[in-house]
Design goal:
Two copies of one chain form a homodimer. Chain A contains twelve helices and ten strands. By secondary structure, the first copy, chain A, is α/β, with parallel strands linked by helices. The first copy, chain A, has two domains: 177 residues, NAD(P)-binding Rossmann-like Domain (Rossmann fold, 3-Layer(aba) Sandwich), CATH 3.40.50.720; 122 residues, N-(1-d-carboxylethyl)-l-norvaline Dehydrogenase, domain 2. In chain A, strands 1, 2, 3, 4, 5, 6, 7, 8, 9 and 10 form a ten-stranded mixed beta sheet that branches. In chain A, α8 crosses α9. The first copy, chain A, is globular and about 55 Å long. The model of chain A has no long low-confidence stretch (mean pLDDT 96). At the A-B interface, α7 and α12 of A face α7 and α12 of B. Chains A, B: This is 2-dehydropantoate 2-reductase. Chains A, B: Its EC number is 1.1.1.169. Chains A, B: Belongs to the ketopantoate reductase family. Chains A, B: It catalyses: (R)-pantoate + NADP(+) = 2-dehydropantoate + NADPH + H(+).
Chain lengths: 307, 307
């Protein structure tokens, strides 16, 4: 199994290392961290049973065009933010038999790729993980690690199942999902309130948000469920309650959007919120709380000089 | 006409000076600025035709109990924020014939005072003004100045009309309002979106907010109109459009809540938003956008260490 990981950030480095440990030939296309990763590989420190280990990619390139062969799978592990030229990054990596694997947050993030590569299999994936790039070639895996993978727009190909199996063998949970779009909505139920509220509150933890504004959080979650249902992906009736209960049980947690905000990086506002709001508008579902949070995030971005 | 102004901030100093210029005997109860105002009075620099002038109060005290006589009018010119002990401040100022005049932003700010002083006339007032205390005893009047005054809960007494007349003679517009509660809702239509959105966006001007999120602003304004109507104070049908048009015509403007936020001072979140939201809940009116903005302001306050 030949794999190319695009993106030498925390997600790509971590999941690439798991495939390599199972015998896959994992190469990596890195931009800002190319020099370090090419020379030294990646050091991963995991708080899980994986412990501390080193990952040396088979080949490290700046651009996928430099690879001698097209891979069986290309894992695109980058955030979906403005100026992320995902099609451009994939263009030189994809051959006739290459499956494209997107591991990213958000709603409706597949369509652009599906249209640009209509003849390639598209596998859409979600990572439930706390993992951080602490320096070039240094990754800190704090907690969790579960993946959900499935073909876009639906179904499970043999190649998707095969990839899941390799991930499972590596010791993480990899859920093979027949309806990955529903899984995205499921994740959005949590992301849509907690990511923006952590930013708009200027740094509150999930626990502080939930313990003071539970009914507001619930209202946002309910609206996400309404959109999921209206777009053909109904979520279980206990989805909101389970998300609330699980969040109370989690340790206080800084969301990925808050980490991006604090570091001055672009945020996944459009992928997580904007696309959800537009799906709601298209479906004619009333989503006033979600709309409000989206509008305020756009104002907050403008207030810090984005766009 | 004997007047006591409680609060030596910008609003009290400015309106007190206008009454004094018309021959009223205006005393002042000042706390933090007592030393300066007692020794030097107040210097006012106005960008209007009033120009620069000096206001020397008849008597300056730390506490109203020090005054030899009870005034005809006591003007309470302080922000309605947590820890503002308005009843305590008024207690020593109010005699049997004293009319209490509240000049403050917000919704439902009168009831506490009406209950504490059931035998005194209560005049409720709104100031439409840009005025800033730049240092102890220094006030900068940037623009506007209109007042609206009326008895709470409704009507216009002779003393209220008399006060209006004196303000009018001083050169500002003072609207005598038979339904001052409706006037509060009218002002809330503007305050409810622009004050919190300027804070939550971390400093955008009214113009930047409106030009990028007009439909969100309108949604909040419409909800305020719904509450006003449901509580017996219907506003004119063109209220939202007029507020939008006027704001586009205003120069870019920093809201009072943003100024308080940037200075680390308590904000009028409860007076402006919380009380409006509770009125909406009591009336059974759907106000999801307003609720969202209120919840986010509470989170933002918590995020900066309030409460």
């Amino acid at each position: 199994m030949k794999v190319l990981v695009i993106g030498s950030g925390a997600v790509g480095g971590f999941y690439g290392s798991l495939l390599a440990a199972q015998g896959a030939e994992v190469s990596m296309a890195a931009r800002s961290d190319y020099m370090h990763v090419h020379a030294h590989g990646i050091d991963i420190t995991s708080e899980s049973k994986l412990g501390a280990y080193h990952f040396r990619p088979h080949t490290v390139v700046r651009n996928a065009a430099e690879l001698p062969e097209k891979p069986d799978y290309v894992l695109l592990c980058i955030k979906v933010v403005e100026n992320a030229d995902r099609v451009g990054l994939l263009k030189d990596a994809v051959g006739p038999g290459t499956s494209i694997v997107l591991i990213s947050n958000g709603i409706d993030i597949e369509d652009e790729i599906a249209k640009a590569f209509p003849d390639n299999e598209l596998i859409s994936g979600l990572a439930f993980i706390c993992v951080t790039r602490t320096a070039p070639g240094k990754i800190w895996h704090q907690a969790y690690g579960r993946l959900a993978l499935g073909n876009y727009p639906q179904g499970l190909s043999e190649k998707a199942l095969e990839l899941c199996k390799v991930f499972e063998r590596s010791g993480i949970t990899c859920v093979a999902s027949e309806d990955i779009v529903a899984a995205r909505w499921q994740k959005c139920v949590w992301n849509a309130p907690f990511n923006p509220l952590s930013v708009l509150s200027a740094g509150l933890s999930t626990n502080e948000i939930l313990s003071t504004q539970e009914s507001f959080v619930r209202a946002i979650m309910e609206e996400v469920c309404l959109i999921a249902e209206a777009t053909g992906h109904p979520l279980p009736a206990d989805t909101v309650n389970k998300n609330i209960e699980n969040t109370y049980r989690m340790p206080p947690y800084k969301t990925s959007m808050l980490l991006d905000f604090e570091a001055g990086r672009p945020m996944e506002t459009e992928a997580i919120l904007g696309n959800a709001v537009r799906a709601g508008w298209n479906a004619g579902v009333p989503i006033p709380h979600l709309e409000s949070v989206y509008a305020l995030m756009k104002l907050r971005e403008l207030g810090r000089g984005d766009g």
